[in-house]
Specification:
heterodimer; A: 220 residues; alpha/beta; Rossmann fold; 7-stranded mixed β-sheet; two-stranded antiparallel sheet; 10 helices; 9 strands; globular; B: 300 residues; mainly alpha; 2 strands
Chain lengths: 220, 300
């Protein structure tokens, strides 16, 4: 998959959603941002040029990806998954404090902390994926299709918790989502990605009110 | 009963070698997700190297330590130059490269050390005394110094690997990379380096083993042949990603093989090798991921 002509800006403390059909290049775009695949062009993050940076350098700068399919480290316990999430950090005490914080946010994870993560349900794995990514204390969180495989109820819970995390931690979230209705409900702005090219950004309300978008992505 | 214990003990002597080599295989497997068929030859090469070091006056123990370090560095270099360029997806090219490495090391050792002697084996100096009276009595049975030393060193290595995996951040990174390399990269773990480290550790373990085996096998390019088959069986039996499992399985295979060969007269020493394979077959039918291997337990 190749993406071209993508222009996107995310300001601090925003939730921005990228909408687009299957195969539009949303996942490719996020993987490019995280340094997982070769890319061209300029990518700047908080003044740093990360166009050629390796994934570990990008994580260290404060950008974390919740990958599509949740990226569960199946053979590790829930607790070790979270510790692995904090791999780039050195402040051991604060890491354990953060772990407790995510156990508070998602009590199901606390109950299962010594279980292998591969045994968690889909919803629990998604909570784990968000928590694991948050363990690196990112200032920009990228979420790739967090609703995939989740029930509508779990999806809305997850998005509520994303909105709450963003508000509490004062961070920025860029989320790719097919479930446009729910994504737009917490987003400030949105972009439309079609066949690898990005249209101009519009406010979330504007996108949600657009008839063409409603027909294509919102389904009503 | 005494005979039973004696035969079990005899089996341990080989079992500890299977276990040692299986541990090396597991270190590499965790990094590359394949068995390295050249693992035994790498150990063999290290044994020859240790021999040369003893010839220039370095004490045997020192020579073993040096070859272990050499193994560590050479393992990392091999991963970097031969394995990483394969990209980790193509099974056949990996197979070919490790078999090529097998043949290359074999011929290289033969050319360097044995060609001038017409291929005759070289004697390797004893690491510990091995006279008729050099043994400890355990339950009235003789445990000779050489296998005992190998066992102790294996125990120390297994202990170190356990501590590394359980209690260190590097170990956590290694376990993460082995379980889900993609996620590991996303979390900032340099998976390439972890893979090099896996090869380095495997080769270092081989670097320890080669010179420990050499006194009893003497130095030939074929010295590791009999062991690599069992070690592969042990690694598979114990679970190719479980260091402790592979070691335990190696010891078990050594003991069971010897017991069966001595109690079932039709097996004798000729069919001994088949024992390991039958054992392997039975276990894999019941537990496809080995006795202690991690089962793929993902829920969608």
């Amino acid at each position: 998959m190749e993406c071209g002509g993508v222009n996107l800006e995310v300001d601090e403390r925003e939730i921005v959603v990228i909408l687009g059909a299957n195969g539009a290049g949303k996942t490719t775009f996020l993987r490019a941002l995280s340094g997982m695949i070769p890319r061209r062009g300029d990518i700047h993050f908080e003044g740093h040029d990360i166009s050629k940076a390796a994934p570990d350098a990008i994580v260290r700068l404060g950008l974390a990806l919740v990958p599509q399919g949740r990226g569960t480290i199946a053979d590790l316990t829930v607790e070790d998954n979270l510790r692995a999430g904090a791999y780039v950090r050195g402040d051991k005490k604060a890491v354990y404090a953060d772990m407790d914080r995510w156990y508070d946010t998602y009590p199901r994870l606390a109950e299962r902390r010594t279980q292998k993560a591969g045994l968690l349900s889909g919803g629990e794995q998604q909570m784990l994926a968000v928590s694991r990514a948050m363990m690196s204390r990112p200032r920009l969180l990228l979420c790739d299709e967090p609703s995939l495989g989740l029930s509508p109820k779990l999806t809305s819970q997850l998005f509520e918790s994303l909105a709450a995390i963003k508000k509490e931690m004062g961070m920025t979230v860029l989320v790719v989502e097919q479930n446009a209705a729910i994504a737009l409900s917490i987003a400030d702005r949105g972009y439309l990605l079609e066949a690898g090219a990005m249209a101009a950004s519009r406010s979330a309300d504007d996108l949600a009110g657009d008839d063409a978008i409603r027909a294509a992505y919102l389904g009503y | 009963m005494d005979l039973f214990v004696a035969r079990a003990f005899d089996g341990l002597g080989n079992g500890v070698i299977y276990a040692f080599l299986a541990l090396a295989l597991v270190c590499v497997y965790r990094a590359s997700k394949h068995l390295n068929f050249a693992q035994g030859e790498m150990a063999m090469f290290c044994a020859f190297l240790a021999y040369s070091l003893t010839r220039i006056g370095i004490p045997v123990i020192g020579a073993i330590a040096i070859t272990a370090v050499f193994g560590f560095l050479a393992g990392a270099a091999l991963e970097r130059t031969l394995i990483r360029p394969l990209g980790g997806t193509d099974h056949y090219s990996y197979l070919l490269v490790t078999i090529g490495l097998f043949l290359a090391l074999n011929s290289l050792a033969g050319t360097i050390w044995l060609a001038r002697r017409g291929g005759d084996a070289l004697p390797f100096p004893d690491v510990v005394p091995s006279g008729p009276d050099d043994y400890v009595s355990v339950f009235g049975e003789r445990l000779r110094y050489q296998p005992l030393l190998t066992m102790i060193i294996l125990g120390v290595v297994v202990g170190l690997v356990y501590v590394l995996f359980r209690f260190t951040k590097l170990g956590l990174a290694m376990r993460t990379a082995a379980s889900n390399p993609e996620s590991a990269r996303l979390l900032g773990i340099r998976v390439n380096r972890i893979n090099s480290l896996g090869w380095a550790m495997g080769a270092a373990v081989g670097g320890l083993l080669g010179p420990l085996v050499a006194p009893s096998t003497t130095l030939t390019t074929a010295m590791m042949f009999p062991f690599i088959i069992y070690a592969v069986a042990a690694a598979t039996l114990g679970g190719t990603d479980s260091p402790g499992g592979a070691v335990l399985a190696g010891l078990l295979i050594g003991v069971i093989e010897n017991l069966i060969a001595s109690y079932l007269s039709f097996v004798g020493s000729d069919l001994k090798q088949a024992v390991a394979l039958v054992l392997l077959l039975v276990v894999l039918m019941v537990r496809p991921s080995g006795l202690f291997g991690s089962k793929r337990v993902e829920r969608a």
